[in-house]
């Protein structure tokens, strides 16, 4: 039972699969989701793939009394698809758009057009400040040969950077969303280890839901089970993460997922299962909020993080190699287009070169070939520009990772020279932060 | 004279104007800049427009002993142009790329290709943590009719959001760069008021430099004075901002700018003047770092901020209106291209429609017209996609501004109902952050 020092917070997360004209039974499913949310009255609702603003506004109307506060994150061409509803007032909002997110010419997959991002809202829950994040990473279309892995790793890197750097000063951090990564995938480990966030599923005292916490299950009528290969029953790619602070300890009392079908309804809420976590917040008498950006890490954790960031760096390097190759191909295609154009012009100018003096270059062929050359040149130019941007983003992430590994290794050295744990972060240091030798 | 409780920190900022093949005397100027920096040994060096990585690496080699720590921020197609050198160790780096930054088809201006951003490095200065930001905003090409104003306002909005949300927990915040905004411009006021950052030029005890602190002066041989119109002598668009925290108070002891010519050299360092601030940090016995993201604002400041954000919102709405019009034009052009293509196909299929049965559609004209139609359609599609992204970014910023105004007005109301100053931010609140009514 709750006493005056504890608060219970219910957090809901769902990938709504709300693609206009493409997602089956979209409107009926949104009606079902709206009913569920207004009935259940979760404190915080984190939605993904709400691609249409109309659908968001429909939900907003429906939830105006149960969830008076909301924010819709706009980004990219279609939007970020991210939306949040809250019973507690939203104080501030900020969006970070990932620097990499697939390719625009893979239009049938649509990820690039979605402008995938991480959205942050700052909630005031009484006198508590909660930093709540919602995100959706690039989809995994083929696990065996996942060409988007470097992009997703960079997204996970940027996600943990964003959370680490912006959550300082908060009493409570919550992250919900569809990471499109399994629990033991590189990106998930990177996120968990670097931020100190806890996974609701592994931490919960009580779980009720699909086998192994799956959120993308083979039984779902909207899923083609072949897409899940090599996993027969399902995968866990949606999460609710959380962490407390010096002022608040957080415990996950229970975690539940929907189980496919919905009572009295012909189909489930979405092609993903929804997650609901019940968090118990307990007032801590001592300490302050998250006053430093780095989690307080022990030597073992630091070493683990060094390994994970090194692994991520390797993956980014693979991505760099592929992006360089792609850019080279675009440049070569452009050069070929230009050569073809020059050749055509030469033939047209001096017909005897190829066709003989009595056979002028047929006009129609001339124009058709010219148009083709221009099309090749222009496309190659656009692709070259795009791949250069991809390269810069990958190199930027790799630079940051190298810096992080260096910094972590330095801290590890501090441990080995028998300095006390978390010497940089100790609150007592704040009493006398100066140890620089004054100049002159 | 410095005592053990005080530290002097020298910060340098310069827009290097380092465009390969275009910027005059680039290599000689970099050599001069390198010499200046290695001689002066500033603690922190913030550079903008270092467009070529080769130039950065050249500087890095030259400064390897005076400034052993450095970071180069990569972004966009050419790069962000941002670089930082430091005598103190760089602990972490993070980049935020602005969501809006001009148009790719304005290739001669080049802003879009630059991927303008704000870069952050976290320095360890003894036991102090300093958050150091470097940025470069979109250029102002015509002050009378500044079509990039909404983009620059959104950049200023995102800049202040980024600094507010990431600087928490720091002892010292420094921002240097070329804002391309005058001191009383909307974006500068927005940045200053919302973050609480102090402008080195207005705060300094001692100033030595160009008249009125100008950093872009008419006398500079690389500048066409007409570009400065209606300002005859120069403008101040480069800044060093700073603020302390509960642990450290900061005073700007002196600020200087270069004054065009360099002794024994035929030309100045750049088309901008360099800035150098000498900051005096003083240990504060009480308090902690920047534990909350909002600056502690009095009622007057809050009201001023509400006005400024409202003004920014109006500017963004103007931008929205223009972007909508541009997108509409792109859509209309696309429809016209499609209509032309269909018309051509109809004429080719049924020649008697326009040309009479005995006159078939000339093949060359058919292909040429077809290629033109496709070119129109493709360009219109690309522009439509781009303008949609622009619209989303503007709408997103406007949403955030609306939320911020609401939140600020709420705090103003709290003031009027006689609540004590900064009731949300008082450190004493952290002793008992819970005042939520427990559920059930």
UniProtKB/TrEMBL annotation, chains A, B:
The pathway where this protein functions is: Lipid metabolism; sphingolipid metabolism; Sphingolipid metabolism
Q: Where is this chain's protein located in or outside the cell?
A: Membrane
Q: Which GO terms describe its cellular component?
A: membrane
Which UniProt keywords are given for this protein, alphabetically ordered? Hydrolase, Lipid metabolism, Magnesium, Membrane, Metal-binding, Sphingolipid metabolism, Transmembrane, Transmembrane helix
The UniProt GO MF terms for this protein read: metal ion binding; sphingomyelin phosphodiesterase activity
Database matches in SUPFAM superfamilies? DNase I-like (SSF56219)
Domain Endonuclease/exonuclease/phosphatase, chain residue ranges per copy: 13-272
Q: Which domain of life is it from?
A: Eukaryota
Membrane spanning residue stretches:
335-356, 368-387
- Which Pfam family is one of those matched by this entry? Exo_endo_phos
Its EC number(s) = 3.1.4.12
GO terms (BP aspect): sphingolipid metabolic process
**Enzyme class at the top of the EC tree:** hydrolase
- The keyword Membrane is annotated on this UniProt entry: yes
Q: How does it sit in the membrane?
A: Multi-pass membrane protein
InterPro entries from the xrefs? Answer: Endo/exonu/phosph_ase_sf, Endo/exonuclease/phosphatase, Sph/SMPD2-like
Entry's family note: Belongs to the neutral sphingomyelinase family.
Protein known as: sphingomyelin phosphodiesterase
Q: Which organism is it from?
A: Umbra pygmaea (Eastern mudminnow)
């Amino acid at each position: 039972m709750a006493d005056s020092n504890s608060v219970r917070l219910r957090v809901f997360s769902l990938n709504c699969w709300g693609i206009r004209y493409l997602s089956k039974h979209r409107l009926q499913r949104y009606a079902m989701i709206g009913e569920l949310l207004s009935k259940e009255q979760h404190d915080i609702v984190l939605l993904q793939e709400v691609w249409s603003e109309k659908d968001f506004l429909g939900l907003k109307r429906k939830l105006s009394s149960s969830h008076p506060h909301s924010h819709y994150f706009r980004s990219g061409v279609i939007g970020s698809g991210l939306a949040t509803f809250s019973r507690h007032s939203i104080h501030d909002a900020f969006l970070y758009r990932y620097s990499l997110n697939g390719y625009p010419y893979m239009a049938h997959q649509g990820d690039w057009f979605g402008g995938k991002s991480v959205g942050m809202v700052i909630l005031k829950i009484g006198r508590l400040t909660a930093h709540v994040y919602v995100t959706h990473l690039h989809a995994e279309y083929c696990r065996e040969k996942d060409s988007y892995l470097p992009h997703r790793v960079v997204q996970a890197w940027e996600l943990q950077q964003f959370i680490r750097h912006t959550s300082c000063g908060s009493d409570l951090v919550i992250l919900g969303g569809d990471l499109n990564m399994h629990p033991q995938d590189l990106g998930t480990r990177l996120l968990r280890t670097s931020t100190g966030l806890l996974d609701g599923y592994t931490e919960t005292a009580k779980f009720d839901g699909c086998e192994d916490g799956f959120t993308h299950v083979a039984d779902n009528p909207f899923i083609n089970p072949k897409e899940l290969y090599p996993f027969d029953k399902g995968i866990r790619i949606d999460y609710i993460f959380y962490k407390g602070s010096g002022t608040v300890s957080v415990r996950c009392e229970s975690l539940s997922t929907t189980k496919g079908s919905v009572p009295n309804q012909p189909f489930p809420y979405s092609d993903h299962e929804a997650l609901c976590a019940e968090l118990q917040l307990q007032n801590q008498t001592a300490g302050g909020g998250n006053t430093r950006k780095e989690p307080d890490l022990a030597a073992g954790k630091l070493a683990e993080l060094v390994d994970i960031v090194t692994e991520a760096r390797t993956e980014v390097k693979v991505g760099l190699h592929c992006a360089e190759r792609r850019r080279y191909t675009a440049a070569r295609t452009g050069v070929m287009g230009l050569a073809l154009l020059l050749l055509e012009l030469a033939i047209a100018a001096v017909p005897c070169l190829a066709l003989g003096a009595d056979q002028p270059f047929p006009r129609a062929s001339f124009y058709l070939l010219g148009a083709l050359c221009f099309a090749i040149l222009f496309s190659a130019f656009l692709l070259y520009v795009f791949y250069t941007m991809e390269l810069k983003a990958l190199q930027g992430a790799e630079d940051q990772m190298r810096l992080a590994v260096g910094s972590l290794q330095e801290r590890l050295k501090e441990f080995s020279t028998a300095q006390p744990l978390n010497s940089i972060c100790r609150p007592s240091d704040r009493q006398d932060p100066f140890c620089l030798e004054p100049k002159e």
